[in-house]
Amino acid sequence: MPYRAPLDDYRLILDQVVGFSQVQGTDRFAEATPDMVDAILTEAGKMCEEILAPLQRPGDLHPARLENGVVRTSPGFAEGYKAIAEGGWVSIGADPEYGGMGLPMTVTTAVNEMMSAACLSIQLNPLMTQGQIEALQHHASDDLKALYLPKLISGEWTGTMNLTEPQAGSDVGALTSKAEPNGDGTYAITGQKIYISWGDNDFSENVCHLVLARLPDAVPGTKGISLFLVPKRLPDADGNAGVANALKVISLEHKMGLHGSPTCVMSYEGATGWLVGEENDGMRAMFTMMNNARLGVGGQGIGVAEAAFQHAMAHALERRQGKSLHGYSIAAHADVRRMLMTMKADVFAARAIALACATAIDMETATGEDSWAKRAAFLTPIAKAFGTDTGVDVANIGIQVHGGMGFVEETGAAQFLRDVRVTTIYEGTNGIQAMDLIGRKLMDGGEAAHRLLDDIEGFAEAAKGTLPDLAEAVWQASETLREATEWFVAQSDLDERSAGGVPFLKAFARLLGAHFHLKAAMAEPGSPREVLARFYIERMLPEHTGLLSHAMTGATGLYAMSLDDLAA
Predict the structure, then answer these.
(1) Where are the beta strands (DSSP E) in 353-395?
(2) What element of type H or E holds 324?
(3) Which of 138, 61, 150 is nearest to 99 (CA)?
(4) Does residue 14 contact residue 355 with C-beta atoms inside 8 Å?
(5) DSSP letter at 294?
(6) How far is residue 186's CA from residue 379's CA, in Å, rounded to a whole number?
């Protein structure tokens, strides 16, 4: 079955679930009227269905390759990227001063999710560029903005981020790439970077790299890291891509999935770069890019989950095996029905969480209010981790729905799992997201968490007159999570907190999913939305009890066995 953009889900979530009307009611985003947003999502959905989705299999079967130092992209990718760039889909949220649309992050998040569902390998390219645009808007000099932003926003040039080195993965402070002043305001960048998504291509005029490196007098660790903009081709006097810079792609990684997306090993050999932001403040500037990228990666997981569900649903409706009182296709069997409803319910929950996070970002942008900033920050690791875990789980269930044919590559079911698996790893592993949640995001004494729980319980109270059993279940789960939050806030030992970070994050996501399902059911009582909400709240929300029991067990048991015994 071809991919279909889930426009009805977006409409319901924006209108009834995450309070997007608040964003539209601000002066900053007043032009994002319901009609405009609906038109944008409709057009983006059409582009994803008709142009990007047909690239999904060719990108897997005919991977990007390195030929004489030049990256050759998969068949049709150049045309697909052209459609993205010319349609303005790179620059939805970018500053209008430089050619962007200036629309809310919530709209960008929905469009990016659709592109991920259609073809994740190509969507990763504009996602990287969007992050670079964000970093430059906030931290670059006016001259750099004037030169680079119009080209990146138009899609003529593309962007990457270069953090990881062979010896410096999640420990970014261990990087050794050097930046030597050239005496003319530029720097000579030398070092090797790995895992660089879309480090090169054969369809954009230039590729602009944001590179973390150390100045000669930099202190060790993350406090001695600066950020530099290093283009593949140096701009000439007219601002066009000119002569080649001293950098190259050494090799492409051979990966489990995302074969259409070239993941490069980059070598910088005294390449000319420009400082972005202040000296030794590179991590702060890079995190501007990474935070939005984390929400975007969560959306990638959700998009793949949506595509995997649609693929499995089509197979289940067509495949006949055995018989049931409810029909002849395998979709009539209770266990297959359980799998399909699990997939659909989790996709909705993850999508609503991501769009709620984006809405909070937009409200922070529009109002500058600290409460919105804290909510956006709190929801970001949840949106990233739960969105990508959902992508993996739903793609895995999709293979099971296909049965033996799911293990056979020709059905395409396995590709979803292979492609999405990395999303739980890059932009900060999901374990790191959990540590961030129970670390930095609870440093306010749990204020942001408790405000969110207050909202959940307030809505549950209001819903008790219409859906009393579902509302009561959500309210009780919120109280249980409140107690767990207080436990984490009270723990001073990092190991005690970290040991339970992952189950705590997932329990919070389960509650948020139940809350948003309840809101959808209240918007359309008696409809299939209520049926799906009942499935989620009755069958999936109870997982939070076991998750929180795990979360509050502490670290002692993890260290009770020696490493020698563990390895035996």
Answers:
(1) none
(2) strand 320-324
(3) 150
(4) yes
(5) H
(6) 38
Give the model's pLDDT for residue 324.
65
What's the CA gap between 540 and 350, in Å, rounded? 13
Strands 178-181 and 70-72: unpaired
List of long-range contacts for 181-186, beta carbons under 8 Å, 24+ apart:
181/215, 181/216, 182/272, 185/274, 186/272, 186/273, 186/274
**pLDDT (tens digit per residue) in 124-165:** 999 999 999 999 999 999 999 999 999 999 999 999 999 889
CB distance 360 to 350 below 8 Å: no
Give the pLDDT mean for 100-108. Answer: 96
CB within 8 Å of 468: residues ≥ 6 apart: none
pLDDT, tens digit, 9 for 90 and up, residues 451-484: 999 999 999 999 999 999 999 999 999 999 999 9
Are residues 428 and 435 in contact, defined by beta-carbon separation less than 8 angstroms? Answer: no
pLDDT at position 414 over 80? yes
pLDDT digits (tens, 9 = 90+) for 36-68: 999 999 999 999 999 999 999 999 999 999 999
| Residue type, position 518, single letter | L
Which one from 427, 457, 496, 530 is the annotated catalytic residue? 427
Q: Please, is 335 exposed, middle or buried when counting C-beta atoms within 10 Å of its C-beta (0-12, 13-18, 19+)?
A: exposed
Q: How many CB atoms lie within 10 A of CB 306?
A: 30
How high is the pLDDT of residue 320?
82
427 is catalytic: yes
How confident is the model over 215-257, as pLDDT tens digits? 999 998 889 999 999 999 999 999 999 999 999 999 999 999 9
Question: How far apart are the C-alpha atoms of 167 and 176, rounded to whole Å?
Answer: 9
Nearest to 134 by CA among 172, 176, 90: 90
Domains of the chain (ranges; CATH) run: 159-280 (2.40.110.20), 431-559 (no CATH)
Cβ density class 243-265: b for 16+ within 10 Å, e for less? eebebbbeebeebebbbbbbbbb
Q: What is the Cα–Cα distance from 303 to 332, expressed in whole angstroms?
A: 26
Residue 120 tokens, joined? 């994740």
Secondary structure of residue 277 in the 3-state scheme: coil
* DSSP 8-state secondary structure symbol assigned to residue 2: -
SS3 of 226, please? Answer: strand
Q: Where are the alpha helices (DSSP H) in 48-182?
A: 56-61, 77-86, 105-139, 142-154
